[in-house]
TrEMBL record:
SUPFAM superfamilies: HD-domain/PDEase-like. Keywords: Hydrolase, Metal-binding. Residues 10-124 form the HD domain. Pfam families: HD_3. One of its GO terms (cellular component) is cytoplasm. Coiled coil: none annotated. One of its GO terms (molecular function) is metal ion binding. It comes from Laccaria bicolor (strain S238N-H82 / ATCC MYA-4686). This is Predicted protein.
Length: 157
């Protein structure tokens, strides 16, 4: 795990490639972690958000960034990602305490249950505000998204 897997550092994010932007999966996770640090929401466990942002797409290092346009059903995408996480947690990290922490964070993110998972999921949608703003739940991100859309619409007129 401490040795970078080639895809983790070089696999390009599909949604971004389609829009001529090409950050890697690790670029994306790092950017999200920084954005979580910048949160002003005192109700959130910000360190937990940062850790969650750093592991939320780790499975993509093995399965790639599966975009909706690829037609892979959500259940199959989840199965592939869960299998990849199982490999990381049990085979690469030997079910260590750190591995268990990563697994718990990933499962919470996937379930979208605690406020931190909702916040990180909303951050994950942030680059695509034009289509995802109605799905954003966290007020800080929703407000920022509306502000960005307003700014973008003024710039294009």
């Amino acid at each position: 795990m401490t040795q970078p897997r080639r895809n983790e550092w070089t696999q390009k994010r599909t949604g971004w490639v389609n829009n001529d932007l090409v950050p890697s999966i690790s670029d994306h996770m790092y950017r999200m972690a920084i954005l979580c640090i910048l949160s002003t929401d005192a109700q959130l466990d910000v360190p937990k958000c940062v850790m969650m942002a750093l592991v939320h797409d780790l499975a993509e290092a093995q399965v790639g960034d599966i975009a909706p346009r690829e037609g892979i059903p959500k259940a199959e995408k989840h199965r592939l990602e869960a299998e990849a996480m199982h490999n990381f947690i049990h085979e690469m990290l030997h079910d260590s305490p750190a591995a268990q922490r990563m697994d718990a964070l990933w499962r919470e993110y996937e379930a979208g249950e605690p406020p931190e998972a909702k916040f990180v999921k909303d951050k994950d949608l942030q680059p695509f505000f034009d289509s995802s703003l109605p799905n954003i739940r966290h007020p800080e991100i929703k407000s920022g998204g509306k502000d960005l859309l307003c700014l973008w619409s003024r710039g294009s007129s």
